[in-house]
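[09:14] KT: can someone run the structure on this one? pasting the chain below
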Amino acid sequence: MGKLAVGALRAVLLLVLVGTVLVQALMVWTLVSGKDPEDGTLPLTALRVITVLGMVSVQVAVVCVGRLVTMVRRGTVFSHASFRYVDGVIGAIVAAALVWFAVTAVNAPGQRDDPGVSVIMGGIGVAILGVALIVYVLRMLLAQAVARDAEAAQLQAELSEVI
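[09:31] RB: done, structure tokens below
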């Protein structure tokens, strides 16, 4: 991975991390200050709490991807240590899907006249779970690459002994 690509990705990850922290701070400040303008038409307090939790899942994913980028840059991504971070990304995506389903459930009572919105939102949640499955498949490919790398190292050691 080139230095420019690593630098650009790190900048994007940093912007996302700072943005999510700011959103969390604003949501918590609104909840704690008592200046919540909820007028009863939508359960804004519940949505704010859900938003804070959703931002946590994004932050976990950002930190895990940042660690994986560091491992790529160092050339150590094909090791067992990388599985921890890939598992973190998968967990964060599943958590994001659960948060989305919670948003759908909170929003559903207001959509009685047009239940299609809730169905579409549920479909988006299923799509988010699909992304988690894609990352899981990529994790299995990483596991195969790590196993092949270990096998190649063993064969290289045996070849060195023979020569």
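[09:33] KT: thanks! The first helix runs from residue 3 to 33.
[09:34] RB: yep, looked fine to me
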